[in-house]
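As a warm-up, study this chain.
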Amino acid sequence: MDNSAVYVRERGNLRQVSDIVLAQPKPVSSCRRTNPFVLRKEHFIFTYNEEGSLRYTSKSLFDIALLFVADNIHHVDSLVGFPEQIGDRLFVAAEENRVFLNPDISPKAMQLFSDAYGQMVLESLCLRNRFPLLHERLDDIKTFHSLKSLDLFGCKLGDSHELFQHLTSPSLACSLFQLSIGGNGLSDAGLQRLTAPVRMMRKGLDCLQLLDVSYNPISESALKYLTCLPKLVKLDVSGTRMKLGTGLKTKIQDLLGLIYSEKPLDSFDHSRCKTEGWAEQVVNQWETNSSQMPKQKKIEESRTSALRFFGRQKFVREVLNAVPLICQNAEEAETERLHFCRPAANSHVKETQNPTTTNHQAKTPWHDTKKRKHQSEKCDTPHPSPPTKRASSSGFSAEDIDLLNSY
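Now compare it with the structure written out below.
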């Protein structure tokens, strides 16, 4: 295998490939299947006959070839066009071969499957309160470009995380339906930076309907950055600097067309968020693999103590089902829930009224005009009127220009 030549038949022509180095056999102590040309136990099926004698039969050529491709998955150019049944079996073979635990091969291999099979690889990803996993497997997570639901609650993203560019990328624009970025220390500047590509270049988050920005230090002035999400249906701003009142309800309804929900929306319940797809077990392997754990002192001490008392599996289970770290108790979480949704009955009416109305009073419901007149008289000086904010969101504001200059 060291000096042998590799030949490839492509379009009827046989050519020699000199730059491909196949996977070499591992030591005897290793259980990995690496060299299919050597007769090994993996190539045979051992059974017992009625007399109790050991007998074996060879595996099919397809299974042997599948193992060979799984061992050398980093040399595959593309899987586009291969049936999903073969892709599924190849993914399982690569997973059993612990290919996705190798940080040098895993991103390319995961990108290979994602390009070919999209949402079948991973449709929903839940990384709630699992910030070590996010920061350590960021390159692999960026390859999941067909996600419908992404939960990043408590992942310590801050205001300028490199994942922002992936969230607003064209690859996720047509698939991402639900996004949770709560509990990340995201301020008004961070929300401005996150939505900058959408507001300025009209690219990204085209299909986003559910957004969770709860337990972030954002204020009402950051709501203008969400006007670039045309399909936004539900919004969670619980635990922020926004206080429930008539002014907040009016502002969100004017800017986003959403009304306050008296009952908590089930869509923001964490129990509904799950990791689903072929790579579900791979994500669990990343979490449970001790060699991939971060080296930070605080995280290492907490997880070591958890391992001593509860064991790794139970600790991982508790992390997956953990409540938001910022909420102290259930009563506090219950009282601070600020859920807004688009009214189903009035949504069509507002869409028909928007092209014809030219002033702000024509767009607002008639039964709230008296209340809004009193609010405008009281809050004239500290808060600008909604029409001025709508005008600033349509073009480039001074803050947006400063943000552009920073790039």
